[in-house]
Fold this sequence. Notes:
This protein is α/β, with parallel strands linked by helices. Helix content is 33%, strand content 20%. It contains 23 helices and 32 strands.
Amino acid sequence: xxxxxxxxxHGVVQGVGFRPFVYRAARERDLVGWVCNGNGGVLIEVxxxxxxxxxxxxxxxxxxxxxxxxERIDVVEVQGRREELFRIRESNDGECxxxxxxxxxxxxxxxxxxxxxxxxxxxxxxxxNCTNCGPRYSIVEHMPYDRPNTSMRAFEMCEACALEYRxxxxxxxxxxxxxxxxxxxxxxxxxxxxxxLSRDDEALEHAVRCVDDGRVVALRGxxxxxxxxxxxxxxxxxxxxxxxxxxxKPFAVMFPxxxxxxxxxxxxxxxxxxxVSASSPILLLARKRTPPLAPPQTSGxxxxxxxxxxxxxxxNPRLGVMLPYTPLHHLLLEAIGRPIxxxxxxxxxxxxxxxxxEALARLGDIADVxxxxxxxxxRPVDDSVARFDxxxxxxxxxxxxxAPRPFRLRQDGPTTLALGGHRKSTVALRIGTQVITxxxxxxxxxxxxxxxxxxxxxxxxxxxxxxxxxxxxxLHPDYTSTRHAEELARAWDVPLVRVQHHHAHxxxxxxxxxxxxxxxxxxxxxxxxxxxxxxxGGEALVCSASxxxxxxxxxxxxxxxxxxxxxxxxxxxxxxxxxxxxxAVREAARKWFADAEIEPLLTMLQRPSHxxxxxxxxxxxxxxxxxxxxxxxxxFEAQAAMQLEFAVxxxxxxxxxxxxxxxxxxxVADWGPLVEALLADRDRGVPVPVLSARFHNALADLAxxxxxxxxxxxxxxxxxxxxxxxxxxxxxxxxxxxxFEVFAHRQIPPNDGGISVGQVLVAGARRELCGxxxxxxxxxxxxxx
Length: 785
Ligand code: ZN
Ligand code: ZN
Ligand code: FE
């Protein structure tokens, strides 16, 4: 019997070769009808014999293209029609609320082969792509994802490309960014003043020579500008550091091939797979030879052609490694033949430059030459950062290759826009059961950062023509993101929900594991605004999506100078010791401060307005790192904690410092005995790695004691401190041994990159609880249900 079905496929199905796949599957079975991109997925109408239709649906479910993520297939029978064939229709603009926006994909093997084949018309063409690979999110301006809605709109297809684009049998059938040397984007090499030095292949070769000569090249890559320098040339990398005002924060390195990575780093099978995947992240890998734990050398030469220069990631046992992910990167790396530093083209803490003019103006003389092209980058999409541990890929910075793939919620809820935190920020939009998060936007401290936040929020809402019914933000009154949320809620006349920072952290991890009901959340973090006006960050919360109860926190200490203490671990150490010793701290302070600085600091410590009270785990890490002389001033976030983590690398040590959990509600974890024991060990000359291990062990023990006291079977770990692999591994292991079910982050970062997702979940649940009428919902805690 013949019938006709209307099929809608939801998930990541646009920009991944899904329609050609459907087309072939239908034609092979002599089915008629059509397929098109809808606003939220792929829509199909298909007509034919029962058996053929069943077979067709099975194929959709089981054999979809590698990069597609099919989340749901809805099928309804509709009225049959007279039709002769199966075709691909122009996009259907009808309402379809399930969002899906494709992520950028690294070059596929077939395209790479063509780039290398002298006989092919795309030989050495740096913008080669197909339906399986190439730019997506970085070029899309509107939904649905079709060429006129991308920055490829300006390029008119040549006849040869148009033939491929229209041929259902071709790999480039409906490949929206299709291009070739005749009709597509072209390369240019510019001076910092914007004068053209060369074009096309000559520009590429010229840039290669510059890297060879130890110069800094700015490259307009896939998602914005990057800065390149020979990673084996210490002088070149040091020049880049000086120009970028970035003395020691590690640089990522792009390697010519997996084989070369293996010469420098340990690469497991899973790690190798992640490196060559379509997402192609920067992966943090253990080096085979750990560089000495000494200050970076500003002079000196590499030991051999395949040694990474000391200045790349000083005193760091890991290296951030990636492989080429566009034909342009492949061609560059093949010609250079060595690993190169490949870092975001920005000024510190500002977003990456995407326009050539903007890059020349803002980066100026940081680069010696600019290798650019004429395909507009619509939004900055940084390289993603991930690591492998415990058999899991854990994404620490979610951008290229991952964003904006959606997360699935267990329940339907109000359309919600969440504005996230302040550092490492992201925004998120909930539509129904899906949450789409923006790429990593970075810090919002600069005017550029604030502008990017506005644009990213507007983008998400615009893509899906969403009408938010709720806006969510952090509890912190002064965040740029909070202010923008207030503005939007007012403009749209919808309620604003302010979500406590650490509740949002735990909620983000609940989203990724699909948890509901109550859990114990350990939110070990840098800083987050507490409803009591103190700075939270070492928190244990029994929470559900709708509320939380603070069941334990770290003992308080004061941070002289507030925010400045984040950059100066010595201030955290002073605050910590002051809590234990009072004025007798003067003696210890001499090690870290000039005499004239000490009295003002002590005065500050007595005034809450100048020395905010904190329970932050991140600041405890800072203080301990300073006490051990590992780091007294930090150049970048978490530097001190990283030093402590690196110290523990490869150490077998079972002992833990005492860290008692005092009775009370909330219970207080008293670090006093820990600090005393640590100082006694230090003064006895116990090696730093042992001290660091005992400190980490104490925290893992604490986790178990808190979990037993809270008496919840499920424990969720979140917060920036869990970027520390040693800490996370120990806490996971100890809690599991003690019989708890433990959940840690995988796809959503444990740092503030996850805050927006958590806010979405909490806001929806709180609104349900409080009713829809209230305009302002500042009720931030409330019992967990
Ligand atoms: Zn391809
Ligand atoms: Zn062409
Ligand atoms: Fe945080």
